[in-house]
Design a protein that fits this description.
5 strands, Lambda Exonuclease, Chain A, globular
Length: 173
Amino acid sequence: MAPEKLAAIMRYKDGPDGWAARGNAVHKALETHLAGEGIIFENRWAPWIDPLLDCELFQGAEVIATEYRLCDASKSLGGSFDFLLRAASGEILLGDLKTVKTKAAAKRRDPATKQLGAYVAMLNDHHPELPIDQCVTVVAAPDDCRVLRQDSDECLGQWIDAWDCFKMTLEDW
C-alpha cells in the first residue's frame, strides 16, 4: 500500500466515531448474531448493523465458524476470517465483513479477494475436508448492506500471485 493511502486511512481510525470503533461494534454485532446470542449495541451504529443482520446471506444459513483463526507456519502468516457458513443451498461460504462510512463508499468498495484467498489456502491446508465454494465480502454501510460474491478458486489464485510478488521483494526467502 502506498504510504499516502495508508496515511489517509489512518487519519480516520481513532476516536469514538473512527472506523476502528465502528468496525469493532459492527463485527461484534454480527458475531453475536451468528452465535445466536443477544445483540446489544449503541444506537449510533444501528444504520450499519440493522441492514447487516437483515442481509439475505445470513437467512437460513448454518454457521460453521465465526472469527476463526488460521495460520500458515511456513509463511509465518496468520489471520482470522469473520464467518464460514453453509448456505441453504448447501454451498460453503467463506466471508469477510468490511464497514464503510457512506453508501457511496459501499459502491466503490472492492472485494477482499486476496485476503479471502489466503484464508482459502489456509483452510485447504488445515481442513481439506471442507471445500470452500464461494468467497463473500459483506460491505456494511449506513442503511445499506452489499454482498460481493467471488469464486473461491479466483480468490486463491489472486492470493498465490500476490504472495509470489511479495516473495520477490525478499532477499533470502
